[in-house]
Specification:
Blueprint lengths: L1 E6 L3 H10 L7 E7 L2 H11 L3 E5 L7 H10 L5 E6 L4 H9 L4 E4 L5 H24 L2 H12 L9 H8 L5 E9 L19 E7 L2 E9 L15 E7 L4 H10 L2 H4 L16 H13 L3 H17 L4 H18 L4 H10 L4 H22 L7 H13 L6 H8 L3 H12 L3 H19 L4 H7 L5 H12 L3 H7 L3
Parallel strand pairs: 1-2, 1-3, 3-4, 4-5
Antiparallel strand pairs: 6-8, 6-9, 7-8
Helix pairs in contact: 2-3, 10-11, 10-12, 11-14, 12-13, 12-14, 13-14, 15-16, 18-21
Length: about 475
């Protein structure tokens, strides 16, 4: 609650003010009392109250001198000055030195006092919101520390330290939610904002974290109703334990991420190290082998779960893999990483996003050496060849695909590409064979089969005619 110091040399007046208001109901509490200005200054220096209700005329140090000394000490307590009808000159002086308001003792009642306290409360809340904005560099640095990434972009130690002073006595509930591609709203996270002084949100990497500030009170479970989505709560934290407690809230999401509530990992078959699987995935990608890429990627995902990767670590590894594959495909990684990785709210959906991206990249690689035409049926045939070159494709099958005559297809295909359909298909197969020779350890016989040739002798003959050397010579001369 906001704290109040009562300063009045007459005890019965202090008692009357104390009994005038139901302080707790309105968010305030009496933190202390003082009978004169010097006692009050000592109490202010120790307690740093939010509000000081002080008589102007007191022996020793009057209310105005108390206000001056408080401001000299750098303390921003709001002063409500009490005055008798004959002391208006003092009241005007108090306002000049920054008093919030002055009230007449004789007309003081709960309505008047509550009206002033309500206005002060709104000022204090607005001040807290402003200080809260200055905490975001701290949130960014802490998040970077949790992820193990650089923090230089959000350095602001001086501003953060100043702002943090306003929050050191407050209670912090940290609520983390797997929100996907867009930030979650407070109500979606089960938060009742009216139960807190301030609710801040921080969205990064597909998860939204809410920092919910309140006064140090007993734990109130009614503040938060767990939503119907993966969420984690660390209650009763503070800035001093921000990193540790934020990790705790995030780690509570891991069970939901893997689709299990219990923390122990299921027993699984022996899996190769993730580093070996990464290398294998890259090799399969360079071979344009989409089914094998899907198989290896699935093993990587199983290995992450078996190794108890957190959901953040899983996303970071997925982003790392996509960056490498995008680079190999000559694509900008930022086009691929953001939406697909951050929109995932489960281990399964993250794998689906990665597999979809791999398919798109492989299709891009297959098409990059191909010039499509202005004829839609010819383009459909080319696209079909790119996707099915490993199969036994006949011109009749291609004609049936686009519902035109075989002879007409051969004629129009030749006009638009300069090659017959079979010659065009051979080019696609030989280009794939060249990639496998350069980026795999497969035998020539295996490469012939994976490139769509049923006979390795025929493959060698076609390869030598089109490339000018045998597959083995091509591989040897390229230092593979």
């Amino acid at each position: 609650m906001w704290t109040v110091l009562l300063v009045e040399d007459e005890g019965f007046v202090r008692e009357a003010i104390r009994e005038t208001v139901d302080w707790g109901r309105h968010g305030f509490c009496i933190a202390g009392e003082a009978g004169n200005g010097r006692e009050a200054l000592a109490a202010i220096l120790e307690l740093k109250p939010d509000v000081v209700i002080a008589d102007i005329v007191m022996p020793g140090m009057d209310g105005i001198e108390l206000l001056k000394e408080t401001r000299k000490a750098g303390i921003r307590s709001r002063f409500i000055m009490l005055t008798a009808m004959s002391h208006f000159d003092y009241a005007r002086d108090a306002l000049q030195y920054g008093a919030f308001n002055y009230l007449l003792k004789l007309s003081l009642n709960d309505d008047v006092l509550l009206e002033n306290l309500a206005r002060i409360k709104e000022e204090l809340l607005e001040e807290l919101r402003g200080a809260g904005e200055a905490l975001y560099p701290l949130y960014h640095r802490t998040w970077s520390g949790i992820r193990g990434t650089s923090t230089s972009a959000h350095e602001d130690p001086a501003g953060t330290v100043t702002a943090a002073e306003k929050f050191r006595s407050l209670r912090l509930d940290i609520i983390a939610v797997l929100s996907g591609a867009v930030p979650a709203a407070a109500d979606q996270a089960g938060i009742r904002p009216e139960a807190y002084l301030l609710v801040q949100f921080f969205y990064e990497g597909g998860q939204t974290t809410f920092f919910c500030w309140s006064f140090q009170e007993k734990e109130d479970h009614a503040r938060w109703n767990k939503p119907n989505r993966p969420a984690g709560l660390t209650a009763g934290s503070s800035l001093a334990h921000l990193s540790q407690d934020w990790r705790s809230a995030l780690n509570q999401l891991n069970g939901d991420w893997y689709g299990r509530q219990a923390s122990p990992v299921k027993e699984r078959h022996e899996l190769p190290p993730i580093a070996e699987l990464e290398a294998e995935l890259i090799r399969c990608f360079e071979e344009r082998n989409e089914p094998k890429c899907a198989e290896v990627a699935t093993l990587i995902w199983e290995s992450m779960e078996a190794s108890s990767f957190s959901h953040m670590e899983a996303k970071m590894l997925a982003a790392h893999l996509l960056q490498i594959l995008a680079m190999l495909a000559g694509r900008k990684s930022e086009v691929l990483e953001g939406i697909s990785v951050n929109s995932a709210i489960s281990h399964e959906t993250l794998l689906a996003h990665v597999l979809q991206t791999i398919r798109e990249l492989i299709r891009h690689l297959k098409e990059e050496q191909v010039s499509f035409t202005d004829h839609p049926e010819v383009n459909r045939v080319i696209q079909y060849m790119l996707e099915h070159y490993q199969e036994n494709i006949k011109v009749a099958d291609l004609a049936k695909l686009v519902a035109i005559n075989v002879d007409y297809l051969s004629t129009v295909f030749g006009k638009k590409t300069g090659l017959t359909p079979i010659a065009y298909l051979q080019n696609i197969r030989i280009e794939q064979a060249k990639r496998l020779l350069l980026h795999s350890k497969l035998s020539v016989e295996e490469i012939a089969f994976q490139s769509g040739f049923a006979d390795d002798a025929y493959f060698i003959k076609v390869f030598k005619r089109m490339v000018g050397q045998t597959p083995s010579s091509f591989r040897r001369e390229n230092n593979i």
